[in-house]
Amino acid sequence: MNGGAVAEFDRFRRRVLAAGAVALAVCAAGAAGNPDQFFRSYLFAYLFWIGIALGCFAIVMLHHLVGGSWGVVIRRLLESGAGTLPVMAVLTLPLLAGLPRLYVWARPEAVAGDELLRHKAPYLNVPFFLGRLAFYFAVWIALAYWLNKWSDEQDRTLRPEVKTRLQWLSGPGLVLYGLTVTFASVDLVMSLEPHWFSTIYGILFMTGEALATIAFVIVALWLLADRKPMSDVLRPTHFHDLGNLMLAFLMLWAYVSFSQFLIIWSGNLPEEIPWYLRRLSGGWGWMAAALLVFHFVVPFVLLLSRYNKQRLRILAAIAGGVLLVRLVDLFWIVMPAFHSGGLAVHWMDVLMPVGIGGLWLAAFTWQLKRRPLLPAEGGY
Amino acid sequence: MESTRLYGLMAEFDNPADLLAAARAAYAEGYRKMDAYSPMPVHGLAEALGVQKNPLPLIVLLGGLVGCLTAFGMLWAIETIIYPLNVGGRPFNSWPAFIPITFETTILFAALAAVLGMLALNGLPQPYHPVFNAPRFALATHNRFFLCIEASDPKFDLVATRRFLENLPSREVVEVAP
Q1: Shared-domain flag, residues B30 and B7
Q2: pLDDT computed for residue B2 by the predictor
Q3: What percentage of residues in chain A have a pLDDT greater than 70?
Q4: Shared domain check, B117 and B78
Q5: How far is B26 from chain A (nearest CA, A)?
Q6: Nearest chain A CA: its distance from B57 CA (Å)
Q7: Is A268–B88 a contact, with Cβ atoms under 8 angstroms apart?
Q8: Both B90 and B62 in a single domain?
Q9: CA-CA distance, B19 to B35, in Å (whole number)?
Q10: For residues A167 and A64, is the Cβ–Cβ distance under 8 A?
Q11: A300 interfaces chain B, CB cutoff of 8 Å
């Protein structure tokens, strides 16, 4: 990358890093007065950003397997996103300090008084939880490391066998991704309400993460579109493909979310239905209705139009909206576990995504500026 | 007029690039009532022929909406008015249970609208079409590319149009009987 662009990237990186650090510092000061809230907001914001990192990681493997020019133009963005996973591993550490505050199964006195939790204790206990988290991150970081390393090698040598090697890694890699993200979503989020369970939970997270990732790369592409070499290769067909992918993930999210709801609603069983009763009453119910409208109906209708998908500015505006509703969806999934009384938004819930996002974006930009914005193999 | 007894003039080309260039040249020349025939899709050919936005997407959307409303309306009417059944104490208007059928019917109607709309807009089925009167036209499914300027085009003139087509890198230009 040329000097001017590097300087610009460095400036952006310093700014987001400063914004993130300030936001996190303010939240840390707030933690003294309300530690419970700190960890809840932290978990929510952490899930949003690790979702984009994992989505980048998954979609780059998907692209190695299926190919297509849509993926070539965003491949560096995806690889840079996957390259932030070690930073996300470090950002997991504060979470570990708050395990008993977040998870009822991490409080021995609560487990002792709850027969179901006693039976779940062989799985839901702190040492095993930490071991699993370490395992997930080991898998993710190792796979992302090899994906990035071999992609660099492909850029340098342009040897076709490197491409084959990337494909051989990506197939099993996607299987490992599916398994680890399923277990991670159960461990980190579903176990907030350990009496409840849903077998579609992993897919729900994967779909939401992929949706957020596509929205994120569309916005990033929009910011980079006027810059060489992007301005030379980007065509409306790329935006059309990315818009269609966003539409596909949006519909998949709606499909999976509704499947979970329909089955639990139809069954109406006392161990399953409280999860929805909590999330459909009072302010949470209004939030659910807003999700139906703004996380599905509005973007769905907008993305049906080819006109909207072939214009990067319009597409980026829709993608920005999708990122926002992804945050709301995660909030609606995570927070009612703590606020069963009704909808409550704390200032840390707003500031924390900025804080973690600042650090994440700084790591992302640092990864991005190391290499040319387009892979050398071509095929745009 | 000579041209009233003709369907049009057809030029034969060896490769898709020549056909595409010919279609662009004919459009630039002012011809509008024309069509191109090729054994495989040629990228950009529809735009070169000046094909405007087609109404198929709108037909598919309407088909989907009709399917959506039909299914949901039918289920709602049956379950709440015509034959209300108490299923496990759930409300008669159990809308979540209607969604899968509504979803499937939306897709079914949209798909049918796409297929039938495509056939209707293409004027299919069509048992007779004049272009098959051109002796070598069967090669359009094999390895030749054809551009036919129809006699109904206001700019069509048997002599001038023939000269125009012959000046393109065409193999031959034939008159097509109606």
Answers
A1: yes
A2: 47
A3: 99
A4: yes
A5: 27
A6: 9
A7: yes
A8: yes
A9: 11
A10: yes
A11: no
Tell me how far apart the alpha carbons of residues B70 and A120 are, in angstroms, rounded to a whole number. Answer: 47
Residues whose CB is less than 8 angstroms from the CB of residue B164 and which lie 6 or more positions away in sequence, other chains included: B25, B26, B29
Distance from CA of A262 to the nearest CA of B (A): 6
The backbone region for A281, taken as left when phi is positive above 0, alpha when psi lies in -120 to 50, beta otherwise, is beta
Asked, for residue B37, whether it belongs to a domain, the answer is yes
Sequential pLDDT tens for chain B (178 residues):
444 578 999 999 988 888 988 998 899 888 888 889 999 888 888 888 888 778 899 999 999 999 999 999 999 999 999 999 898 888 999 999 999 999 999 999 999 999 999 999 988 898 988 888 888 888 888 889 999 999 888 888 888 888 888 888 888 888 888 8
Q: How far apart are CA B123 and CA A260, in angstroms?
A: 45
pLDDT of B3: 44
- On chain B, the residues whose CB falls within 8 A of the CB of A262 are 96-97, 99-100
Region A50-68 average pLDDT: 95
Tokens 């509008």: give the residue. B32
CB contacts of A268 in chain B (<8 Å) are: 88, 90
Q: Is residue B130 part of a domain?
A: no
Residue B43 and residue B65 in one domain: no
Q: Do A330 and A349 meet the contact criterion of CB atoms below 8 Å apart? A: no
> Which residues lie below 8 Å from residue B36, measured CB to CB, with a gap of 6+?
B19, B23, B42, B45, B49, B145, B146, B147, B148
CATH number at residue B8: 3.30.70
The reply to whether B44 falls in a domain is yes
Chain B residues with a Cβ under 8 Å from any Cβ in chain A? 57, 61, 88, 90, 96-97, 99-100
Is B126 part of a structural domain of the chain?
no
* SS3 state of residue A208: helix
Residues B25, B62: one domain? no
Contact B57 A306 (CB under 8 A): yes
Q: Which long-range contacts (CB under 8 A, 24 or more apart) does A29-38 make?
A: A30/A347, A30/A348, A34/A346, A34/A348, A35/A98, A35/A101, A36/A101, A36/A338, A37/A346, A37/A348, A38/A98, A38/A348
Domain range holding B67? 56-121
- How many domains is chain B built from? 2
Which residue among B74, B95, B121 closes a domain?
Answer: B121
Model confidence at A354: pLDDT above 90: yes
The structural domains of chain A, with segments of one domain joined by +, span 3-369
Mutate which of B62, B65, B99 to disrupt the A interface (most A C-beta within 10 Å)? B99
